[in-house]
């Protein structure tokens, strides 16, 4: 079978023949029908993270179960599933506190699985490696969804949408009538924009460095589009009676944009970091500013969500028409088109590209 493989930091991405093991007793084999190209995949390539190589990319996907191990009870062959890149163990201290997104046994950026056609040991992104024709994963990493849910929408529920909607509803707790700024308008940022409007925010100020994102932002529900330049702080204050927004959600993962989000927020407001940054990118904040501004700074890991509970709920919302994801998908291509999709993402173009890998 074929998969998108990277062999070193900044090396060209190539579609290669790989071999996956047969599913173990607790594992399932899934035919991937749609997979999103997410910014965290770029972090596996551009040196932000340091995973072992060769590595199969991809962690946002949906497909059909082909085969299951003897001990699998969650799904049967033929089931339509969304892949979960952080399946909680349900037994650690955090899982016991109902905070499965902080599970002590998940979150590793890669896992060893399978071999290349030359026999080299292979690793897969976030335990999945979903930019591939098939994956073999633990049963805990699949979530059943209705067969009538389109695969493209189902794929996005597994990362961008769960993260974006969860950040607004569960982490930040945006309330009706509040004002929200969203910094960075990739797939996650646009999901945050839509979720903030759905939560009843009066003002959703969408911010990006690229003017080409204005149309996408408005389609997702933004009330204003603002360019991330030196006039941004003033532009935010002009729209919020001089105070700043109640909530700023940072969807980039850089110290500069975290400071931008901090400055855009009113005294006593909340800054939620949704983007995953690099460990040597240090955020500088003044000690007096921290005290005087009385702001809260927190992060949202996987949308503070429980995917087993929240993915089926989001699937129902897509099917009953209350959650529209049409604005999120701006490109579709095959596995062979995936390297160009990564190039578009690193140039900041479009929202999500969905890869349709099945031959
Ligand atoms: Zn992702
Ligand atoms: Zn756990």
Give an account of the 3D structure:
- By secondary structure, the chain is of the alpha/beta class.
- The chain is built from ten helices and 18 strands.
- Strand 14, helix 7 (255-264) and strand 15 form a beta-alpha-beta unit.
- Helix 3 packs across helix 4 (187-198) and helix 3 crosses helix 9 (307-319).
- It is globular.
- The N and C termini lie close together (10 Å).
- Bound molecules: zinc ion (2 copies).
- One zinc ion binds at residues 88-89, 92, 94-95, 103-105.
- One zinc ion (ZN) binds at residues 88-89, 92, 94-95, 103-105.
What's a concise summary of this model?
The chain has 10 helices and 18 strands. It has 359 residues and is an alpha/beta fold. Strand 14, helix 7 and strand 15 form a beta-alpha-beta unit.
Overall pLDDT, averaged? Answer: 96
Taken from the alpha-carbon principal axes, the silhouette is globular
Helical amount:
25-40%
Q: Number of helical runs?
A: 10
Detail the poorly predicted runs: none
Q: SSE string, helix = H, strand = E?
A: EEEHEEEHEEEEHEHEHEHEHEHEHEHE
* Strand content range: 25-35%
Task: Give the beta-strand count.
Answer: 18
Structural class: alpha/beta
N→C terminal distance: 10 Å
The molecules bound to the chains, other than polymers, are:
zinc ion
Quaternary form? single chain
CA-based gyration radius:
20 Å
For the biggest sheet, the summary is: 7 strands, mixed
């Amino acid at each position: 079978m074929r998969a998108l493989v990277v062999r070193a930091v900044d090396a060209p991405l190539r579609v290669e023949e790989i071999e996956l093991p047969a599913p173990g007793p607790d594992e399932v084999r899934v035919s991937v029908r749609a997979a999103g190209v997410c910014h965290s995949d770029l972090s596996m390539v551009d040196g932000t993270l340091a995973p072992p190589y060769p590595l199969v990319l991809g962690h946002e996907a949906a497909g059909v179960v082909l085969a299951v191990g003897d001990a699998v009870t969650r799904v049967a062959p033929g089931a339509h599933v969304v892949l979960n890149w952080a399946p909680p163990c349900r037994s650690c201290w955090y899982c016991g506190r109902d905070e499965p997104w902080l599970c002590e046994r998940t979150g590793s950026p890669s896992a060893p699985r399978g071999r290349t056609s030359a026999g080299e040991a292979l690793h897969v992104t976030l335990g999945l490696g979903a930019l591939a024709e098939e994956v073999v994963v633990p049963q805990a990493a699949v979530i059943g969804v209705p067969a009538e849910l389109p695969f493209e929408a189902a794929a996005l529920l597994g990362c961008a949408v769960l993260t974006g909607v969860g950040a607004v509803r569960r982490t930040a707790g945006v309330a009706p009538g509040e004002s929200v700024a969203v910094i960075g308008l990739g797939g996650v940022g646009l999901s945050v924009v839509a979720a903030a409007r759905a939560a009843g925010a009066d003002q959703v100020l969408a911010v990006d460095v690229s003017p080409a994102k204005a149309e996408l932002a408005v389609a997702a529900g933004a009330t204003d589009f603002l360019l991330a330049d030196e006039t941004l702080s003033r532009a935010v204050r002009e729209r919020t009676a001089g105070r700043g927004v109640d909530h700023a959600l940072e969807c980039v993962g850089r110290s500069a944009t975290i400071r931008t989000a901090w400055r855009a927020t009113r005294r006593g407001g909340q800054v939620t970091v949704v983007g995953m940054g690099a460990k040597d990118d240090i955020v500088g904040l003044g000690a007096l500013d921290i005290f005087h501004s009385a702001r809260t700074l927190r992060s949202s890991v996987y949308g503070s969500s429980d995917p087993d509970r929240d993915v089926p709920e989001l699937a129902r919302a897509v099917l009953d028409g209350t959650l529209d994801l049409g604005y999120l998908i701006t490109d579709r291509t095959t596995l062979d088109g995936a390297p160009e999709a990564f190039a578009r993402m690193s140039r900041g173009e479009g929202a999500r590209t969905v890869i349709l890998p099945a031959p």
